[in-house]
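W.,

You were right to be curious about this one. When I first looked at the sequence I had no strong expectations either way, so I just let the prediction run and decided to look at it fresh. Below is the sequence, 80 residues in total, followed by the output.
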Amino acid sequence: MTTATVTSKGQITIPANVRQSLHVDAGDRVEFVELEPGQFLFMAANRSVTELKGMFGKPSKSVSIEEMNQAIASRGASAR
C-alpha cells in the first residue's frame, strides 16, 4: 500500500508510482469521488472529450442546428 502525509496546509504529494499509474503530471487535475462516508475514490480528471464519443450510443433521431436553435429559443422565452 502506498501512503502520503498531509501537510499543515492540507496538501499531499502524490507518490511517483501513483502518478505514473494514473498518467498525471504537474498541472493535471484529479477528482475525489465519495463512495461512502469516509471512503473516497481518487482518480485522474485528464480524459479528453474525444474519449467520451460513443459512450451513450447512437441517438434515436438526428436534430438539425435549426431545430436546436428553435428549442433553445422557445425554452429561453418560457423561462422569463
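Here's what jumped out at me. The helical segments are 16-22, 65-78. And, maybe more interesting for your project: DSSP finds two helices and two strands in the chain.

Coffee later to discuss?

I.
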